[in-house]
Every structure is written in structure tokens, then in C-alpha cells.
Amino acid sequence: NAGVTQTPKFRILKIGQSMTLQCTQDMNHNYMYWYRQDPGMGLKLIYYSVGAGITDKGEVPNGYNVSRSTTEDFPLRLELAAPSQTSVYFCASRGQPEAFFGQGTRLTVV
Amino acid sequence: EDKVVQSPLSLVVHEGDTVTLNCSYEVTNFRSLLWYKQEKKAPTFLFMLTSSGIEKKSGRLSSILDKKELFSILNITATQTGDSAIYLCAGLNQGAQKLVFGQGTRLTINP
Questions:
Q1: Is A99 in Cβ contact with B103 (below 8 Å)?
Q2: H, E, C per residue of chain A
Q3: Exposure winner among A67, B72, B101, B108, fewest CB in 10 A?
Q4: How far apart are CA A31 and CA A5, in angstroms?
């Protein structure tokens, strides 16, 4: 019963490097989301998707890109990492009524 | 732009106290409001509320939504140290299915 799986759990990037955060869900949910959570703060929506092939910007999309080629997968791409992107990233997929979260990726950009 | 605001941002109480956490929302084509509890890692679901105004209860936790005031509260009675967590609320809109969270309330229960 995997639910939402995120990889990696931890990553340290140098400024200017790129990486992809992976997110996979096995619940056949149409709706998927990427959030970032800075220390002591709530969740900020980066991008979301309502189904395969459809994505839209959230509150803080700058510096990120996403794709949704299948129902199961919703990867988040950082092209040119910056220290401001140091955060914990959560992927979520939503059925009815609740959203299920992955265990998060802690990213540090140095 | 959809907006969810929680208050207080931080709350410290003693075990056994009752607490009320607040969540106001401005969500286009509002569909529902969700409450989550976050301990060490991923948020876990507590309640979903709609404009029906029906109160939701689970043990010592209860929540209700006021559709006129665009406001929801989460009550926790007879608090325990295990209730210490960040409590998050999120607004969901009908059309775009965007799920927007508030800043969270950090609740600390002291023995």
C-alpha cells in the first residue's frame, strides 16, 4: 500500500545545478500537487495538475517546472538551483475527499 | 488570488486545556476546506468541511465552517501532549481544483 512515493528523501545541491524530484502515486488519482514548506511556515503551492497532460502554476512557480505524462507520475524540475530554494518539498495526490502526502524531500542548496 | 489565513500562528497551553484554532478563507468558487495535522513529517488528514455547515467530530477534535463569514474553527478539548503539532487548513476551489494552504498554527501542549 505505497500511496505517494517521493524520491530522494534528502539532497544537497550546489548553486546552479539542476535536479528532478520524483513523485509517484498508485491510487489512480487525477489531482496532484507540489508544495514547498519553509521552516515554521505552511505549505506553498508550486504547481498542480488535474490529469495527465494538464498542469498549472500555483503560488510560487518561479524556478520550477513540472510535467504530467502519466496519471501516476508528477516530477518537479529545478533548473538552476538557488539558495532560496532550500526547503522541504511535498508531493500530494488527491482523491475524495482528502489529499495524501508523500514523506517529503529535504533539499539544501549551497 | 485564493487566500487562506490561520490564527494564531503559535499557541502554547497546558495539558487538559481546550483550544480553538482559526482559519479564514477567500477561495474562488469555493468547494471545501480541509484540516490537517503535521507532526514530524507529512501532513495527515483530519476533516473536510463544506458549505453545508455540518460539524465534523472525531474524538476530542471537532470542526465547523461558517459559509457566511468564510471562516472555520478547529476545536480540541482535553488536550494531550500528543496533540502538539502544526495544524494546517486548506481551501479547495471547485473549478481549477487548486488546494491552497494557510501558514499553519503551531500548537504546543505542555504537561
A1: no
A2: CCCEEEECCEEEECCCCCEEEEEEECCCCCEEEEEEECCCCCEEEEEEEEECCEEEECCCCCCEEECCCCCCECCEEECCCCHHHCEEEEEEEECCCCEEECCCEEEEEC
A3: B108
A4: 15
pLDDT score at B95: 78
In this complex, which of B32, B48, B100 lies closest to A45 when CB atoms are compared?
A: B100
pLDDT at A86: 97
Q: Sign of the C-alpha dihedral, residues B23, B24, B28, B31? A: positive
CB of B6 less than 8 A from some CB of A:
yes
Contact A45 B101 (CB under 8 A): yes
Instruction: Select from A37, A26, A15 the least CA-distant residue to A71.
Output: A26
Q: What's the pLDDT tens digit per position in A49-104?
A: 999 999 999 999 999 999 999 999 999 999 899 999 999 999 999 987 789 999 99
Is B99 in contact with A102 (Cβ distance < 8 A)? no
Q: How far apart are CA A14 and CA A93, in angstroms?
A: 29
B40-56: pLDDT as tens digits:
889 999 999 998 888 99
